[in-house]
Amino acid sequence: MAHIALKTKRERSHKPHFTPLGEELINDIQQVHPFPVALLGAAGCGKTQVALEVIKRRGKLGEMEMIGCHPGLDIIDTIGGWQSKADEAGRPIMSWVDGPLTRAARMGYSLLVDEITRLNQQHVGRIMGVTDETRTLTLTENGGEKIKVHRDFAIIATANPPSAGYNVVNLDEALKSRMMVYTFITEPLCDEEATVEDILGGDTAYTKAFMNWADDMRKDQLTYVSTRDLCYLAKMVGRGFDAMKAIKLNFRDKIAVEKRSTIMTSASAHFEV
Amino acid sequence: MKIWKSPKDETRDHMNFLQHLAGSRQVDVTPSGTQGKFDTSVEASSSSLYIKKASGRVPFNASLLTAGQVKFGAHGMSARVRGKMDRNMRAKGSTPMASCQVYDNVYAILENKRAARKAADHFGRPKILSDHLKEVEKSSKEQHQYGYKTTLRNAGKDDTYEVDWNEFRAYVYGAKTLRDIKDPIIEDLVRRNRDTVIGASDTLNPTTTILAALKIASNFWVTEETGGGIGTVPKPPDGEKGEDAIPPEGLTTEPLGEDEASDLEDAIVADTTDDVTSESINKSDFDKDRTVAGIDPLEKGSSFDDVVNDFVDTSEQIKSASALNGRCDGKVNENHRISSFTPSVRLQVELSDTRDVAGKMLGNSGQRVSRNVWKLSAFGDTNVFDKHPYTSSDMIVLADCSSSMGGMWRKRAAEISTAVKERFPDANLYGFRSNRGQSYNADLIPFGKAEYPHCDGSTPLCGAMKGLESLHNLSEASVLIITDGAVNQCYNNALDRDAVDCCKSRASAWRSKGVRFATIYIGYGVRYEPLPVELSVRIEPYDEICSEDVNKVFQFFGR
Fold first, then answer.
1. To the nearest 5 percent, what fractions of chain B are helix, strand and coil?
2. Is residue B24 scored above 50 in pLDDT?
3. Assuming Cys at both sites, which of A39, B55, B86, B332 could form a disulfide with A47, CB separation 3.0 to 4.6 Å?
C-alpha cells in the first residue's frame, strides 16, 4: 500500500487528540488541582499524555519534574543528597542537591510520578508527607531542613494496572487515600484514529488500515498493540518506511515467538493490498 | 487454542491467523465440495468453528475471506438466541426440531454473506466480496449441493422432508429469483419472508441477520411445524407469485389463520429477544467476568441491538477473563511422599563455582550490605544487611511431579531446585501434580533442599498457579517452573476452556502484576507450549545440568 498523501511537518497539527473520556479526565484533573492524582492503565493507553496535557494546559510544561519509579530507586533520586563538587580551586567539596520531589515541592512545580506502584516504602513515606494536609517535607539528610510545600505543587502519578483477576494494587492504602482522583483507565484516552491520521497527513486509507490491523491484534492480549506502538508505527510510515517494515522493526519482536507470524500475516493482509 | 505449524513465509500463516481471530474456539477445516476458491462458509458449534473451503492452495484473498467470516460472525450470540427460541417454542407448543434446523441454515447463509461484505471492507480489498459473490452465483447455477441439503424432521411425527438450502443461498446471493426456486419449502419460506430476506441480504449489522433467522424460523414453526406437519403450508395469497404459480405438489392447505399465526410468530420473536436481552443485562456471572475484563456492565435500558453489538465487541475479552475464574485450584498437601536425594558431585562443584560469581552482588542468602554498615564496627549492630529488591520479593520454584517426570528427569529437576535452595535459602519450593480426586485440581507439595516429591498423576499447571496466588504475595515475585512438557487438559468445562489458554491468561495476568517468569523444560519437549517467560532453558533428555544453566537460573532470581 503506497503512502502518498503525506503532509509536511509544518502542516501537521502535532497535537494529541483525546477521546471524550480523555478530555473529561483532563478537565477533572484540572478541577482538583493541586490535589494528588493517580491514573492506572495498561502501557501505552495515554496516561502520560493526559498528565502532560494537564500540565501543558496549566502553562507549566517547562516546570515539570519527573520520577520513573522502580524497585531499586534510591532516596537520592527523589529527595536529593550530598554530592561532591569541585570548588574554584578544584578541591572537592560536598554540597546538597535537591531531587525532583524536593525541587518540585520547593518551587511549586508539577511532579509526574511514573509507575508509582513500583515505588519502595521509603519513598512512599516521603510522598505522603507532601500530599497530606501538613504539606511539609522534612529533609533529614540535609540537617533536618523543613520545606513548606509550595501551594502550586501537584503530583500526577501513573501506573500499570493490577492485572485481571487481582483486585489489590501494590500501593500503600494511606497513599491511595491521599489521591483525590484515583481511577482505572480501561480504554485508550487518545483518539487513536485522529492521531494516526494527523501523523499520516490525513491519509484516511492508510489510517483505516492501521486501525483495522490494530483491531485484529487486540483480539488477544499477547498481541495487543498499544496506542504508543500505533503512533510509533504511523510515525515510521510518515518517515518513509513501508508499513510491513515498520511493523517488523517496531512491533514483531516485542511479541511471543509463536504469535509473530500471525502479526505479519495480518499486516500483509492490511498493508500489502 | 491450537498452534498450527507455520509456513516458511511468515506473512502467509493463514491457519494461525484464522485461529487468532477465532479466539478460544477451535478451527476445523473441511473441504467444501465445490471448486470455487471463494465459495467459503463458516458454521459454529459451542466450541468449534467449521470452515468449508476449497481444498488445496487458495489465493491470499480467499484466505482473508475466511478470516473475515471467522472474525465478524456473531455465532456465539446466534447460538444463545437459538437456545432461547427453542425454549420458547417448547413452552408454547411442540418441540421445534425442524424450525431449529431452519434457523441454523438461514442464519449461516445470511451471516456468511454479511461477514464476506465486512471482510472486504475490513481488509480494504473489494475483490474479496466481488469474487465471493461471483463464485457463489456460479456454484448455485452448477447445482453444487455444498452441504446445504438437510432433512427436516417433525418431532413426534413420521413426516420428513429434504430441503435444498442451496436454492435459498442462490436467492440470497441474487443468483435465482422466486420463480426459479423449485424446492417447495424454500419457495414458501422466501415468499412469506421476502422482505426479511431481502433486508438481511445486504446488511452489515449482525442483529439483522440474527433477527431474520429468528423470524423465518418462527414463521416456519407457526405455519408448518405446529400445524399439519412439514409441507402443510398456507396457500399463497392470490397474485403473490403471479398467475402461473403452481402450488407445490402434495401440500395441503393452512391449519392456522393468518392473524393467529402472525401473533404467535411475533410473540416468539419478542419473547426470545427479550429473554436474551434481560439475561445479558442481569446475569451476575456475566457481570463478574465483565468486571474482571475491565468492561463496564450493560446499561439497564439496553436494546437487543445493543446486546448483540456489545457481544460482538466484548465476548472474547470476557471469555478470556472468565478463564481466570475457573473451578480449578491448588492446595498444599504436606502428606505426599518425598524422597531425599544426594546432589551429584558435579552439581556441588558447579554451585561452588557460581557462588563466587554471583556472590559479588548478593550475599549467600540474597542479602546485600546496607549503607548502615558502619554500625557493625562502631556498635556491633549486625542489622546492617538489606534485602535486594529482587530477592526481597518471593522466590518460588514450581516443579512438575507428574508421572512423566519420573526417572532421570526427576533427578535433573531435583538438582536445579536444590541449587536454587542452596543459593537462595528463602526460596519456596513446591512440587505439583494432580489431586487424585479431580485431575484439574493441583496438589502443591512443599519440599526442601536435596529432596524431591514422588512423581505421579498429571500436570495441572493452571490449578497449581492458582494455588500459589493464595499462598504468596506474588507482586514482584520470581517464579521458576520446571516441567517436561504441556499442561494436561483440565476437563474443567472443556467445551469452553483450554488448559494452555488458561495458563497463558494467568501467566499474562501475573506478568502485568510484575511477576517474573522462567521455565526449564526437561526432556523431548514435543508438546512444548511456551509461557510468556523472561528466561527459557531447554535441557535435552540425556544432558546433565551445566554451569551455564545454573548461572542463568541464579541470574534470574538474583540478577
1. 50, 15, 35
2. yes
3. A39
Packing angle between helix B304-322 and helix B75-92, nearest 10 degrees? 120
User: Is residue A256 within 8 Å of B530, Cβ to Cβ?
Assistant: yes
* pLDDT tens per residue across span A23-53: 999 999 999 999 999 998 877 788 888 998 9
Report ipTM (2 d.p.): 0.72
Show me where the domains of chain B are located: 74-235+252-282, 286-325, 330-558
Q: In sequence order, what are the residues at sequence separation of 6 or more whose Cβ sits closer than 8 angstroms to the Cβ of residue B416?
A: B397, B480, B482, B520, B545, B549, B550, B553
Q: State the burial class of residue B79 (Cβ atoms within 10 Å of its Cβ: 0-12, 13-18, 19+).
A: middle
| Angle, vertex CA B12, rays to CA A226 and CA B173, nearest 5 | 95
Chain B: residue nearest A252 by CA? B10
Which residues, in sequence order, are bridge partners of residue A40?
A159, A184
Which residue, chain included where needed, has cell 520513573? A68
> Residue type for B110, please?
L
We find that the CATH architecture of domain B330-558 is 3-Layer(aba) Sandwich (3.40)
Q: What is the pLDDT of residue B249?
A: 43
Question: Do B123 and A160 count as a contact with CB atoms less than 8 A apart?
Answer: no
Contacts of B509 in chain A (CB under 8 A): 163-166
Q: Does domain A20-185 have CATH number 3.40.50.300?
A: yes
**B528 in contact with A at a CB cutoff of 8 Å?**
no
Query: What average pLDDT does chain B have?
Result: 77
The number of beta carbons lying within 10 Å of the beta carbon of residue B314 is 18
DSSP B412-448: HHHHHHHHHHHH-TT-EEEEEEE-SS-TTSEEEEEE-
Which of B292, B325, B508 lies at the smallest CB-CB distance from A221? B508
Q: How far is CA B166 from CA A48, B39, B43, B176, in A?
A: 56, 12, 15, 10
Please give the sequence-ordered ranges of beta strands (E in DSSP) within B423-541, or none if there are none: 428-434, 442-447, 451-453, 478-483, 516-522, 535-539
What residues of chain A score a pLDDT lower than 50?
A: 163-169
Please give the Cα distance from A170 to B30 (Å, whole number): 50
pTM for the full model?
0.66
Q: Locate cell 427436516: which residue?
A: B152
B527 touches chain A (CB under 8 A): no
| Count of other CB atoms within 10 angstroms of residue B490 | 28
Pseudo-torsion of CA A100, A106, A109, A110, nearest 10°? 60
Give the up-direction half-sphere exposure of residue B243: CA atoms within 13 A in the CB hemisphere: 0
Mutate to test the interface with A, among B24, B71, B123 (most CBs of A within 10 A): B123
Which of A177-191, A246-260, B76-90, B530-544 has the weakest average pLDDT? B530-544
Question: What pLDDT, on a 0 to 100 scale, did the predictor assign at position B253?
Answer: 44
Which range is least confidently modeled, A167-171, B88-92, B275-279?
A167-171
Count other C-beta atoms under 10 Å from residue A173's C-beta: 9
Interior/surface letters B423-440, b for 16+ CB within 10 angstroms, e for the rest: bbeebbbbbbbbbeebbb
Q: Determine contact, residues B504/A222, Cβ cutoff 8 Å.
A: yes
Angstroms from B70 CA to nearest CA on chain A: 12
Helix (H, G, I), strand (E, B) or coil at B478: strand
> Domain ranges in chain A?
20-185, 192-271
Confidence of residue B530 (pLDDT cuts 50, 70, 90): low
